[in-house]
Write a structure and sequence with these properties.
By secondary structure, the protein is an alpha+beta fold. It has helices at about 1-20, 30-40, 40-60, 70-90, 100-115, 170-180, 190-200, 290-305, 310-320; strands spanning about 125-130, 140-145, 155-160, 210-215, 220-230, 235, 240-245, 265-270, 275-280, 325-335. It is about 40% helix and about 20% strand.
């Protein structure tokens, strides 16, 4: 039906260019193509293309309108070919017509939903922010959080998938769902080995990822953090104002080595303390050493969070790490 309506519209536009060229220029046909690209599937798009070619030939042979110059014909031909190629590529991906755009929005929202922080008891606050490279809708960095049956243990995983932006969006979607199912379903020491095994099973060409896994007991403040090739967490000790890098022994990146061993660091968050988890997009730069980037992040963290003048949003804004990489930041605060 949509295809038939657009074919009829193209006939009206063609007739209008002949009858009232001052009101209906030949460029109006590009508007028909624009609408068609959004709503039509490939078969209907091909039918519209054939109709437009026939209409152009009829107008050209009969000489109805002098407005149909070689330049106008060239622009319409390029627009028609580009539209056909776009609809063809979209259908090859299994995305057809306008509803496909809604599906992509739903996928993006599902990634964000996996990182939604569950309700916390009084005395705790968690801020989580993810920004994709160049403002893309999909990011290679994501956060997953869980608190099984509102129990005393909150678990958070910050993951950096190989690639960035839309290139890593599909892998991020798959991994965030899988990691969300694993998180809280097993003891914390078993999570990273299980995540590593899952990644190996996918057999992706670029299937590695870095991750940091945090489990914090919301009654005692004791926490357990394990690292898989990820930048170290940072703890702010409110009592002394000291910043501590939470290194631990760590382990290799996920998806490369079978049966790796991941070490753990055990610590405690006292009232007023804050633990910061982040991805390398905040600290890594071609022009700057990684350690210098971490020092700069710690300085910004100390200036804003330690003085209670800002949170995760302000840290990201002040840091100005650039738009060339995905960035994720999580602040876990015991009030």
């Amino acid at each position: 039906m949509l295809g038939a309506l657009l074919i009829a519209l193209s006939v009206l536009v063609t007739t209008g260019t002949a009858v009232a060229p001052d009101w209906v220029p030949p460029a109006a046909m590009l508007l028909v193509l624009l609408v068609a690209v959004v709503v039509l599937r490939r078969v209907a798009m091909i039918a519209l293309a054939v109709a437009m070619i026939v209409e152009t030939l009829v107008v050209g042979l009969t000489g109805w309108t002098p407005e149909l110059t070689p330049g106008v014909l060239a622009v319409q031909a390029v627009g028609l070919v580009a539209s056909l190629l776009f609809v063809r590529s979209r259908e090859r991906l299994g995305l057809q017509g306008a509803p496909s755009q809604l599906m992509l929005v739903d996928l993006r929202d599902r990634i964000a939903a996996h990182g939604r922080i569950p309700p916390l008891p009084p005395g705790w606050r968690v801020e989580s922010l993810v920004r994709s490279a160049y403002g893309d809708g999909f990011s290679g960095d994501f956060v997953v959080a869980a608190r099984g049956a509102d129990g005393p243990v909150l678990e958070i995983v910050v993951v950096d998938v190989s690639g960035k932006g839309q290139q890593a969006g599909v892998r991020s979607l798959l991994l965030s769902g899988a990691f969300g199912g694993l998180l809280g379903a097993m003891p914390p020491p078993a999570f990273l080995p299980a995540a590593n095994a899952y990644l190996l099973d996918q057999r992706w060409d670029e299937g590695f990822a870095t991750a940091v896994h945090l489990a914090v007991h919301l009654e005692t403040g004791e926490y357990w953090v394990s690292n898989a090739g990820h930048p170290p967490a940072v703890q702010l000790h409110a009592g002394s104002g000291r910043l501590e890098l939470v290194h631990g022994t760590g382990g290799p990146v996920l998806g490369v080595v079978p049966d790796p061993v991941f070490g753990a660091f055990q610590g405690r968050l006292d009232p007023g303390d804050t633990l910061m988890l982040y991805t390398d997009g905040l600290v890594e730069s071609p022009k700057r050493d990684l350690d210098l980037g971490i020092d700069r992040l710690m300085g910004t963290f100390d200036r804003l969070v330690a003085t209670a003048t800002g949170g995760a949003q302000e840290v990201l804004d002040q840091l100005d790490a650039g738009e060339g990489d995905d960035r994720a930041l999580v602040l876990v605060q015991r009030l």
